[in-house]
């Protein structure tokens, strides 16, 4: 028997689980397939950035996650910008990842998503919008149909010609038991730059301490010490913060994985859409992979919802553009941020750090010839968009820290010369719609909404000299006067508007 679904999500990590929850909430019939035999299955990536909390709230998943072991409020000891050790407050949390993913999977089931585990796809055919898949389960083969296939399989080591990579990285890690009274027992999170890589350590729920070393594997290809055990021990012995752990027994053999950041330029193709690490994998330095995977899934769910319910081809194209613009912006910003962070290390002049402090995305070694012409053209467009966004993100400088004069309420203002207007796809409610947005060097990206307020009603008025009081009176038709004034003050503080000097300002470019 063939079962029909709207969505087939492959992979029950944070990306797949989040997409399943959101698409189910939007009324789609979802099937989730997870291959792990063992469940809850162990997973790296336990440190959660504070933004995960908002996503959990948004998904109404707090109750479901109540039982997940969590450690929060531990300070961090950091040796990064200088060789001296600093202690800083740390507002993230460390969870038991296996329990976190398992609790979300229980919620997915409780909300009505169908789940097959352990299960994996053996065959995919059909056409975009009408996929037919064969799924192997312990009870035999199942057949299913789905409009959209969502690939949330996580980091994939298979080489894909369409991937762009940052310089190579590998990570080795192990855990040691924390003896509360032992001299090395310091439950603080530790982050340390070494000449040839960086170390990270954190207490995990359950009395273990994770030690991790991230390095360039190409410098060790011929080195005598390249076994995970000796790489990790050696790094601990050379470090200031982890030295006391160099001789401790590990709870199990150290494990090693590829951690090179990458972005897949063909993440949206013919109703096959990638989420989370399958679309782009971050440098572990940010400890924000889980948040990024979940946030991107929420944005992708809106694009997918729009694509499925679109009334015409232009709306479908808008949905894809929205997804791709989020992917380009999120990936490029992260690559730029990581490069900036590598550049701050006390040892930033050594080769490991120099290579990583200049943001660059390079194609892998897999042959592009295996892609068809259309796919190759798409790769080219996305590559150019990613490189442009990377250059833009790397050039963003904060506004000079000069005091901003108060907004002149009694003399006219208008858009500054550098302000432009672009039309871009935005998420409004459950759908992607096109909106005019403001562009200005002081804005990180084009802005169509300010605190949930669409800016477009103002655009026409601000292309000509207008008195702020007149603008506030106009805005008061849809918001309170105080909020209207705050909006104008925000535009003013960002230098998006300026005093109207007759004959000097020009209209914004679109
Ligand atoms: C060394 C290292 C340290 C990290 N540390 C952190 C950290 O501290 N904090 C943080 O936020 N992030 C961290 N990350 C990143 C984080 O782990 C990932 O970004 C996050 O897990 C991505 O979620 P995901 O759902 O995309 O993929 P995953 O979490 O990898 O989930 C993918 C799921 O798909 C399943 N699957 C795979 N193939 C198939 C298949 N063929 N069929 C069915 N199911 C399949 C897998 O079993 C898995 O359950 C780290 C990453 C690395 C490499």
From TrEMBL:
<dbReference type="InterPro" id="IPR036188">
    <property type="entry name" value="FAD/NAD-bd_sf"/>
</dbReference>
<dbReference type="InterPro" id="IPR050816">
    <property type="entry name" value="Flavin-dep_Halogenase_NPB"/>
</dbReference>
<protein>
    <submittedName>
        <fullName>FAD-dependent oxidoreductase</fullName>
    </submittedName>
</protein>
<dbReference type="Pfam" id="PF12831">
    <property type="entry name" value="FAD_oxidored"/>
</dbReference>
């Amino acid at each position: 028997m063939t079962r029909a679904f709207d969505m087939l999500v492959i992979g029950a990590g944070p990306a797949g689980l989040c997409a399943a929850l959101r698409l189910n909430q939007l009324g789609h019939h979802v099937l989730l397939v997870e291959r792990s035999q063992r469940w809850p299955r162990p997973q790296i990536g336990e440190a959660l950035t504070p933004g995960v909390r908002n996503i959990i709230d948004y998904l109404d998943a707090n109750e479901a996650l109540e039982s997940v072991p969590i450690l929060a409020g531990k300070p961090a000891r950091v040796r990064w910008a200088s060789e001296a050790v600093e202690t800083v407050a740390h507002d993230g949390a460390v969870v038991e990842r296996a329990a976190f993913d398992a609790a979300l999977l229980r919620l997915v089931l409780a909300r009505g998503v169908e789940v097959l585990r352990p299960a994996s796809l053996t065959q995919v055919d059909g056409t975009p919008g009408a996929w037919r898949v064969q799924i192997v389960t312990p009870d035999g083969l199942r057949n299913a149909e789905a409009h959209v296939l969502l690939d949330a399989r996580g980091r994939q080591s298979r080489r894909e010609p369409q991937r762009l990579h940052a310089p190579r990285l590998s990570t080795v890690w192990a855990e040691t038991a924390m003896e509360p009274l032992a001299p090395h027992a310091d439950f603080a999170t530790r982050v340390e730059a070494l000449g040839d890589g960086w170390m990270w350590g954190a207490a995990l729920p359950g009395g273990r301490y994770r030690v991790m070393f991230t390095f360039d594997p190409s410098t060790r290809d011929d080195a005598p010490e390249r076994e995970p055990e000796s790489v990790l021990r050696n790094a601990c012995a050379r470090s200031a913060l982890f030295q006391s752990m160099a001789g401790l027994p590990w709870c199990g053999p150290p494990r090693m994985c590829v951690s090179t950041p990458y972005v897949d330029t063909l993440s949206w193709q013919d109703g096959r859409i990638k989420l989370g690490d399958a679309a782009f994998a971050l440098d572990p330095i940010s400890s924000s992979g889980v948040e990024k995977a979940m946030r991107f899934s929420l944005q992708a769910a809106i694009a997918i919802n729009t694509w499925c319910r679109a009334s015409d081809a232009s709306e479908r194209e808008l949905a894809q553009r929205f997804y791709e613009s989020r992917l380009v912006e999120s990936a490029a910003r992260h690559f730029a941020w990581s490069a900036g962070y590598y550049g701050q290390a006390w040892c930033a002049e050594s080769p490991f750090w120099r290579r990583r402090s200049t943001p660059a995305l390079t194609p892998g070694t897999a042959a592009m010839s295996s892609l068809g012409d259309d796919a190759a053209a798409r790769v080219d467009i996305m590559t150019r968009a990613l490189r442009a966004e990377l250059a833009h993100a790397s050039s963003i400088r904060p506004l000079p820290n000069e005091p901003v004069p108060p907004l002149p309420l009694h003399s006219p203002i208008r858009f500054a010369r550098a302000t432009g207007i672009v039309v871009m796809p935005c998420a409004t409610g459950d759908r992607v719609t096109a909106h005019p947005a403001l562009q200005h060097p002081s804005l990180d990206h084009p802005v169509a909404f300010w605190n949930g307020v669409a800016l477009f009603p103002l655009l026409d008025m601000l292309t000509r000299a207008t008195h702020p009081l007149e603008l506030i009176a106009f805005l008061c038709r849809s918001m309170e006067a105080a909020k209207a004034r705050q909006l104008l003050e925000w535009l003013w503080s960002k230098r998006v508007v300026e005093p109207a000097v007759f004959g000097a300002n020009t209209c914004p470019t679109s």
